[in-house]
Design goal:
about 180 residues; alpha/beta; five-stranded mixed beta sheet; 7 helices; 5 strands; about 20% strand; elongated
Length: about 180
């Protein structure tokens, strides 16, 4: 404690190439109180239309916003010595933030902090097994797990339930 939960919106998904266009940080203090830091960032490069369509942030919206270099001192003062948390943050947000800090020649000591990726907790704590999928999609308990025929029948029921629940699976299905 304290911990800062943060999220970034960027110009794309390439960690070393793309830039931050919005950073939001909520600091959770030991007494349970919270403080919020929320800023648009001028990335110094165009925001592709397909990315703006996802997060809703356009070039015009960030045109007069501070650059990351201008914003970094206030951001780091806000984070102070807090640990960092986010969703999928270890794979995306932390590396992007680190790249932005490196570009600004800012030494931000990451070694003394804990990094909490809420997505990792979710994936480790909530099973990703056939039994869990069968329960989630079909509302049934698997009874003969690891019997190939029973597992195949359960998988068929899960697939049928998924096709009913999700109208467009074409982007997920690979192959033809």
């Amino acid at each position: 404690f304290p911990v800062t939960i943060f999220d970034l919106e960027t110009t794309g998904l390439q960690i070393t190439k793309d830039r931050i266009v919005q950073i939001a940080v909520i600091k959770l203090k030991p007494d349970g109180q919270t403080e919020t830091f929320n800023e648009w960032v001028n990335p110094g490069q165009p925001i592709p239309a397909e990315i703006a369509a996802i997060h809703g942030i356009t070039d015009e919206m960030v045109a007069t916003a501070p650059t990351f270099q201008e914003l970094a001192p206030r951001l780091l003062a806000f984070i102070a010595d807090a640990d960092l948390a986010g969703y999928n943050s270890n794979k995306f947000d932390m590396p992007v933030l680190s790249e932005e800090l490196l570009r600004c020649d800012i030494d931000f000591d990451l070694g003394a902090r804990h990094f909490v990726d809420v997505q990792n907790i979710f994936h480790k704590m909530e099973q990703r097994t056939l039994a869990a999928a069968y329960q989630f999609y079909c509302g049934k308990q698997i009874e003969n797990a690891h019997n190939a025929l029973y597992d195949t029948l359960a998988t068929l029921e899960v697939l049928q339930a998924q096709t009913e629940k999700y109208t467009d699976l074409s982007s997920i299905v690979t192959g033809k």
